[in-house]
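Design request, tokens follow.
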């Protein structure tokens, strides 16, 4: 028996939608996005004080959001300021809206 690997080309929009959906697949990340979408930016220390999770866990959630492109971090020693990435936030809103139409 041979393994025949079939290839399938996904659209850029499908790939981007999946990336954003993965980033939003945890309630803590959804909370962070909602918080950041209502204010200009927030420091990681402020998030750590607000959320009942370990700083290392928070760091992993922020990393996932950054990797998706939904947020970006500005290093301002000794703090890191996190903000919504407005360009990708608008893309995410459009892609999800189109998906649910």
């Amino acid at each position: 028996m041979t393994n025949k690997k079939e290839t399938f080309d996904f659209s850029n929009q499908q790939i981007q939608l999946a990336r954003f959906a993965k980033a939003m697949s945890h309630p803590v990340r959804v909370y962070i996005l909602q918080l950041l979408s209502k204010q200009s930016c927030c420091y990681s220390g402020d998030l750590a004080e607000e959320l009942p999770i370990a700083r290392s866990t928070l760091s992993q959630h922020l990393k996932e959001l950054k990797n998706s492109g939904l947020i970006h971090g500005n290093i301002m020693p000794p703090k890191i300021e996190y903000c919504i990435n407005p360009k990708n936030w608008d893309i995410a809103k459009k892609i999800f809206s189109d998906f649910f139409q």
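Comment from the thread starter after seeing the answer: thanks! The chain has a mean pLDDT of 93.
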